[in-house]
Amino acid sequence: MNFRIPLFALIAAVLVLVSGCQRPAQLRVEDAYVQLSPIEGRPSAGYFVIHGGPQPVSLRGVVTPSALRLEMHETVDENGVSMMRPIDRVEVPAAGEVKFEPGGRHIMLFGIDGGALKAGELPLEFIFSNGDRILVTAPLRRTGSAGAAE
Ligand SMILES: [Cu+2]
Fold first, then answer.
1. What digits encode the pLDDT tens for the residues 71-89?
2. For site-directed labelling of 87, which of 13, 100, 122, 128 has its Cα 20 to 30 A away?
3. pTM to 2 decimals?
């Protein structure tokens, strides 16, 4: 029996892991969370960061089984008045970064179900133009009494 073969295999495995750190950008969604509206019956807002993969894609939608309705919105300034309007897609450049953040793009969730509220989190599925679907779990954050939602 030759003990060198397993050792070489181990070294090869380590090399694969190390080179994995430098592999091309991978499409992914990070830092997702939902800021619950402090007012019952009002929609809550969700935020996240999309990291682009090797090819440009567009985000076509976000779905969840834990809310009655989910919309993608952007906040725009019209004559000094901050308004939000629905958007149906967002371009994600290759290896780029697209943020959904307070004061900008966000998702709006209407009618989050009691089970998700109790669990303190809900699943979000991101649907991309290249067929990729990415499922993440978004924690629900409650707003302090003095905090402003949205
Ligand atoms: Cu909105």
1. 999 999 999 999 999 999 9
2. 122
3. 0.80
